[in-house]
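Q: Sequence in, structure out?
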Amino acid sequence: MTYGTEQPEGERLDAVPSATDAFSQAAAAARQALDNRRTGVAGADRHVEAFLEMLVAERGSAPNTCSAYAADLADFASHTARAGESVAAAGDATLSCYLRGLADAGLAPRTVARRLSCLRQFFRFLAREGVRPDDPTLLLDAPRLPRSLPKYLTEAEVDRLLAVELEGRRGLVARASLEILYATGLRISELLSLPRAALSGDAQVLLVRGKGGRERVVPLSEASRRTAEALRAGSGDSRWLFPGRDPRQALSRQAFDPVIKEAALAAGLDPARVSPHVLRHSFASHMLAHGADLRSLQTLLGHADIATTQIYTHVLAERLQRLVEAHHPLALRGGDPLA
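A: Exactly. Output:
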């Protein structure tokens, strides 16, 4: 078994820092966000920092997640300041007014839903800590979200992408990353944080630490190990499987994106349709299409909730339809069993 959990010595975009470092970053983000809004709300930053500390200590939230929550709460703090209320004492009327204002300003329903989710967690935390006796978000309705299916490539398109051979080191990075992403369904942050020793030797599985510090075991393919070995051979002695320009640091997401876009162009695909997450969706969709069950897929993807994995049920519906059309007696006699 190989491990994808080793961390760098310095700061890096996709690194998973210690709880102390993450809280320091989160607290700094909260102070900066609140300062940028110039709320002037006494005590707002104290409650936000306590909330962010809880996110890191209890849930293992990443700094980027904490920064996003800090920005959302800072925006709400500016609203409560105009309403003459403190953040911790805001009532349901103030919250309803804030959410209506977001919708009236043209924010997407998903953005409004994310802001509401942040507020719900924040006020639930305040109630749990005894800062206030109630949770004013309990009666608030979330915006109705349009159902969207995950975007994925066909198996033929993936084959074209995996067959691409770019020149030089970019070619090694492209080949290894595309092979590993599609073979394992890893998130891009999980891929770029893999240590050099990952996928080496005769290891059959990879231990990955994903969101919230949750660990999962992902089977490895021979092609994944082979492309990783070729990348290691051309990467010096960096401790990372995907080293950045500074070999002491892992490759950043910003530096990786142009590589996958170039590979998409070389494969004759629209670069806008190809991303690490699209390959993750492709992995999941193709697994289901070939007989995998949702529970196994949940484990492989590292989803905490089966409901997240159920976005791929469109593939199950298509597969069931093909089974009926292929094996139902009416279909075999030339009729339409679904009519």
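The CA atoms of residues 79 and 98 lie 7 Å apart.
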